[in-house]
Amino acid sequence: MGTTTPPRTLAEALRARGDESLARLLRARPDLLNPVPNDITQLATRAGTRASVVRALEHLDRFALQTAEALAVAPDPAPYDTLLSLLTGDGQDDGDQRDEAGAAIAAALPAALRNLREQALVWGEDERLHLVRTARELLAPSPQHPSPTGLGPTVAEATAGMSPGRLQEILTAAGLLATHDPVSAVTALAGLFTDRTRMAALLDTAPVEALSVLDRLVWGPPYGEVTPNPTPPVKWLRDRGLLLPVSTRTVVLPREAALHLRAGRAHRVPEPVAPPVEAAAERDPQAVDKAAAGQAFMALSTIEELAKLWNGSGPAILRAGGLSVRELKRAASAMDVSEQIAAFWVELAYAAGLLAADGESDERYAATPAYDDWLELPAQDRWVRLATAWLAATRTPGLVGGQDAKGRALSALGPELDRSAAPEVRHRVLALLAALPPGTAPDPASLLARLRWERPLRAGARGGATTPAGSSSGTPSRAAGTGYGAAPASAATAPGDTSDLRSRLALWTVNEAELLGITGRGVLSSQARALLADGPDEAAARLAPLVPEPLDHVLLQADLTAVAPGPLKRPLAEMLSVLGDIESKGGATVYRFTPGSVRRALDAGQAATDLHAFLAAHSRTPVPQPLSYLIDDVARRHGHLRIGAASAYVRCDDEAVLNEILADKRSATLRLRRLAPTVLAAQTDPASLLEGLREMGFAPAAESAEGDVLITRAGARRTPPRSAPAPVPEGPPVPDDTLLGAAVRAIRAGDTAATVVRRDGIEAPSAGSLPRTTSAETLATVQAAAMTGSAVWIGYVNAEGAASQRVIAPVRVEGGFVTAFDHTADEIRTYPLHRITGVAELADDAGS
């Protein structure tokens, strides 16, 4: 520990640490830095608070947690050998496998104990190990909160308040000498249960049914219910103290007896070694990279398709925030994916800052100006930006479609989808994949098992059902999980269950990584490895050779389709998406030309001659005659009808066409009436009239008040500049080295100020108590210190009224101010003399 005298408190143990050790503590538990503690004592106090201890316990791996749980049921303090015995057993039931397990535990225990010490959950030397009190209270057993080990209270705890007469009856039935001293009686009974020879002899006389009851209670929960008239086996156990009463209907198996039945083990299955991530299949690394690159390019195309879908008038935002189910289904249908996958793409674009709310009164979602900048980047850089945003995002699209704590549906882009654990789980899953040899696909079950070992599952509420002590059937009860008093969360589950959030996040990570092209065929790609290890630039360089070059041509076919044998250059792709409808996607994209798609191109301001020229210029095959006829036919009818605002009107030089419209039953909803031989008026708006006539098979064109045709180009609606949503952090951020160094210096200096010895031999008072001297004494003391270059201890109240103790070395005293080197802040500062409450000289050996 760095001192010859063993520490008596956690504060003394922390005070004996080096600066690097304190920095590691603050890095592991950053909540201790908010705000920076004044001194070591305050640091120790804060490290023992319930919220901080709960957070620290939740970041332990399984074996470190098992070690802490064993210390919680061990005597306080506990020698190292006692702790080791609780984890390995007393050796009475050893076999070859048990010997191997014991050796693994003995090898792993020093590291686990070092981890607990580093996080200030355990302090003291190996001969006197202390688990901090709050952790012991959280992990210790009680009727309401059974221990994670499944052990019950000690004999002394279970018999507290028991009458001396009842204790004598138990001693007599157990074959012990009666004593009228309750303390001696409890000691004698506990001694019986911890003596293997005498305990074995006592159990040899037990009925078989009684041993069956003990088997059901031994691994927990240790509490059982009894009837007013218990069965003979239960009565036999109760008479001999093997079951002690907790209430009129509840009994408990005392800890000492349970440890005997467990051969001294606190846990049924200690897990000192992290389970390996096993391989499920081997792939060709080059094939993996190509598959991942193809999926990465598909991801870029999907995001572009989504932005185009919301180009004109994006979906409205729900009053409670988020995207409606109908709009999500519409997006899923347009992208030809499931709603869950559509939610992933929507959330990814939002997390990358490519989509956002427009902020209008009728608020809608639309692409942001950043989306246009993103489009200008090379494909590999666009992918890197998406992948980086995904890794850091706390948005969790896998939750879409579920319910929150109040039973309300969770919607895409809604405010309740942030989960602070998501980035950490994503990085950890990918790190485990990166640890496998290239081309190795992991076994999902082993991946989940590894993650659960690194962060053991905890139930949202501590407790569990009691086992009927008098029952003659049933299976051994399992120890209840513990949430350590934390807020309700997902319950602890069996290894094959995936109901806990962390496991679901891991499975979602695997699926989303495949969609995004992080993995290919279930294997981490080399470009993703570069992204994790070397950064975005190296990842983009690895991906660039694998991205196909955009093409400048298509293949027109006689069935009114065009085949794009690969990705197209942007101007060609944009024009083709207006002129044709995408029929299928994949390695090659098929566009189908229809009257509606051709009309859409004409509405965008293209003439028939422009369309013929465009197709001839970009087709490697001759333009089929049916396609030319289709364009000419639609162009001939396009604009023959004109729609304007009256409420709305239709005008046409051909009276027969208007007669045909009036005779069509489908026009009834438009409520048309003839104003003139070539003009019809409608009681609906122009947009609805335009859409209604198009559904009837006509090709009308909208016109302005001057009679000019309105061109409806495929406009790009954009939001005002928007920044990407900030991830919701999981607790306080981890401080950098600069902040850690400054915090450690401040704590050390504050501790010096709080523990220095004054020249008169009186130690500094506790935190919050300031030295008091008159103004004349204060001035004289700091002037003398300035002349001699010595340090003094002062009390100081700042302009906000906050009081503190400081150790300063005065340099200059003038004009009512003292300029001094402040050891607490590790810098030169100036203090008004009237704000110094008092000053005291330090002892010569106190240091500064």
Describe the structure.
With 848 residues, this protein is α+β, with helices and mostly antiparallel strands. The chain is 43% helix and 12% strand. The strands form eight sheets. The chain has a five-stranded mixed sheet, covered by helices on one side. A five-stranded antiparallel sheet has the order 25-24-23-22-26. A four-stranded mixed sheet has the order 4-5-3-10, with no helix packed on it. Helix 5 packs across helix 7 (96-118), helix 20 (379-392) packs across helix 25 and helix 21 packs across helix 23. The longest helix has 25 residues, at 285-309.
Short description:
Helices cover 43% and strands 12% of the residues. It is of the alpha+beta class and 848 residues long.
Fill in the keyword field for this structure.
alpha+beta; five-stranded mixed β-sheet; five-stranded antiparallel β-sheet; extended
SSE topology sketch:
Elements: H1 10-15, H2 19-28, H3 40-47, H4 50-57, H5 62-72, H6 80-88, H7 96-118, E1 122-123, E2 130-131, H8 133-139, H9 155-158, H10 164-173, H11 182-194, H12 196-204, H13 208-217, E3 223-225, H14 232-239, E4 244-245, E5 250-252, H15 255-261, E6 279-282, H16 285-309, H17 325-335, H18 339-351, E7 355-357, E8 365-367, H19 369-375, H20 379-392, H21 422-435, E9 440-442, H22 444-454, E10 467-468, H23 501-516, E11 519-520, E12 523-524, H24 526-533, H25 536-543, E13 555-557, E14 561-564, H26 570-579, E15 581-584, E16 589-592, H27 595-603, H28 608-618, H29 625-637, E17 642-644, E18 648-651, H30 655-663, E19 672-676, E20 679-682, H31 686-695, E21 701-702, H32 737-755, H33 775-788, E22 792-797, E23 803-814, E24 817-822, E25 827-832, E26 836-841
Parallel strand pairs: 3-10, 17-21
Antiparallel strand pairs: 1-2, 3-5, 4-5, 6-9, 7-8, 11-12, 13-14, 14-16, 15-16, 17-18, 18-20, 19-20, 22-23, 22-26, 23-24, 24-25
